[in-house]
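We emphasize that the prediction below concerns an isolated chain of 301 residues; any contacts that depend on oligomerization or on bound cofactors are therefore not represented. The input was used exactly as deposited, without trimming of termini.
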Amino acid sequence: MLLDTASLYFRAYFGVPDSVRAPDGTPVNAVRGLLDFIGRLVQDHRPDDLVACMDADWRPHWRVELIPSYKAHRVAQETETGPDVEEAPDTLTPQVPVIEAALDAFGIARVGVAGYEADDVIGTLTTRATGPVDIVTGDRDLYQLVDDARQRRVLYPLKGVGTLQVTDEAWLREKYGVDGPGYADLALLRGDPSDGLPGVPGIGEKTAAKLLDAYGDLAGIIAAIDDPKSKLTPTQRKRLDESRPYLAVAPKVVQVASDIPIPAFDPALPNTPKHPETVDALAHQWGLGGAMSRLSSALRP
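Result of the prediction step, given as a token string:
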């Protein structure tokens, strides 16, 4: 089980009231929400391995070089040497170190790689996996990793932590008319304002799905531009032709990496907290006794 950690703690932050606070008054709603979410996932699914995948760089420079608008609207501050600072609620950012400390205290593997997003860590670990993989994320970008033959699916939170949409190929075809790899092509054609991806003007989700159904994949659609016998409308042909520079670079931006250098780590789901004294100290400092206790109970076989 691979967790898109930032996606999940953002959801926890907005799903748990900010009246949940530490003894000193600091909000800890995202921390409690995430710990309870992990506890519920462990309880319901009992994975052999559990990895909290992290954004070491939420807006990698190599993606921005290809498409400068990539996540540009979410930049709070640009930096010369490290990752740009992402715009986030004032009371969420201070909770992230607490989340990291809690995961480490429990012994839940936490993996981030400099210059890459959590999506890329997830893509690489999914590619390397020899058994079934459940990806837990509130980000539809990771639908591209769904693969029934290799038992790869996405668990997408719909409401709180109790209701998860199990996303497999049948669901993708019913909803979007594509399979996992086809979802990446669909996303880059239609664009994604939340990620600053412009897409091809005039081509929305339904048109993109129809084009992919007709021509197979992005390469097939590009070949159709130059094929006078293809059934592209004059407007579609013109817009796709004018978008060639974008279509040439967009796949590298949209597709998650599958071969990044990940340091050695132990992904095994712990049965008991690795550092129980630290768990107790964090519980006391941040008023998280209930959440810490619930997660400890969930980890016990």
